[in-house]
Amino acid sequence: MNKHLYRALAALCLSVTSLAALAAYPDRPIRLEVGFPPGTGPDIVAREVGMQLGKQIGHTVVVENKSGAGGQIAAFSVAHAKPDGYTILLGEVGSISIAPETTSKLPYKPLQDFVPITEAVLANFVLVTPANSPYKDLHAFVEGARRSKTSFNMATFGAGTPGHFGAEMLAEAGGFKVEPVHYRSTGDAVQAIIAGQVQGAFLTTAMARPQIIAGRMRGLAITGAQRSGLLPDIPTFAQQGLSSVDFGAWFAFLAPAGTPTDRLDTLNKQIRQALRQQEVSDTLKGDGFDIIGSSRADMDKLMRSEQRKWAQQVRKTGFRIN
C-alpha cells in the first residue's frame, strides 16, 4: 500500500475513533448522590430530574441517598469521587454554602472540590406562627418581639440550617432578640409550632401550605422576590418593609473538580432540558419549587455569593458546630 495512502487512512481512523470517544459520553449509568432520605424535598428533585435525564441520555440515572450530617456525607462522597462525569451531586445551600462557616473540620472545600453544572430549583421560606398566635401579620409579630422582655422562641429543623440563620436574619432586621429552638426532626418542629410551644418558624412553601390551608398555622410573610403561586395571599418580606430578609433553599447539580468541561456542558444542557419538560416542571412546582435551570457560569457566581452571604450571617451569631 502506498505509504501516503496508509498514513491518510490511519489519520482518518484516528479521527473517527476520537469523534466516537467524544460522542460516547455518557455510555453507562450516572450515579446521582443526594444527602437526604427518600421522600424529602431534595430526594424528590433528584428523582424527578434523574428519571427524565435518564430518558434523554439513554442510560439510567441511579439516585443514591447518602443521608446524614445535613447533606455533608453525600457531599464528601462526591467531592472525592472520580471526576469523569459519572458521579454527580444534588447539592444544596446548607452543605455547600453554610457548612464551610459553621463546621471547622468540614472534610471538603465546596469552592475547590466541586464544579457547577446548574442550579436546578429554589424553594422559598414562609414565616409561620401557631394558628392561635396573637400576631396576625408581620408588623404585629415584629412589634411583639421588640416588646417582649425575653427572647422570642423560633423553631428550626436543626442547628446550622437556613431556618436557623433565617431566624437570626429576621431578628436583626426587626431589631429584636431571638432564641432558636433546634428540633431533631421536621415532624417534631412542626408539632411544636402547631402546639404553640414556639412563637414562629421558617418553613418551605411546600411544607407550610398544607398546614396553613388546614388552619393549623398562620403565614405572615414569604422570602423571595415575589409571592408564591402556592400561597398567593401571603405578601413577601420586601412588600412589608423588610427586604433584607431574603434567603432560600437552592438545589444544584455539582460534579467533582476536574470533570472534563465537555461533559459538564453535556450535563448542563441535558438537565436544563429535563427541567423544562412539562411533567417534571409541574411536579416540582406543585412541591413548592421554582424552576431555575441556570448556566454553569451563573451557578458558579451563586456558589461564591451565597458562601459570602452566609459566612457573614453566621459570623454575626458566633455559631460553630466544632
From TrEMBL:
UniProt keyword terms in alphabetical order: Signal
Keyword Signal: yes
Domain of life of the native organism: Bacteria
Secretion signal, residue range per the UniProt entry: 1-23
CDD domains: PBP2_Bug_TTT
Pfam family, one: TctC
Family the UniProt entry places it in: Belongs to the UPF0065 (bug) family.
Record protein name field: Bug family tripartite tricarboxylate transporter substrate binding protein
Taxonomic source organism: Candidimonas humi
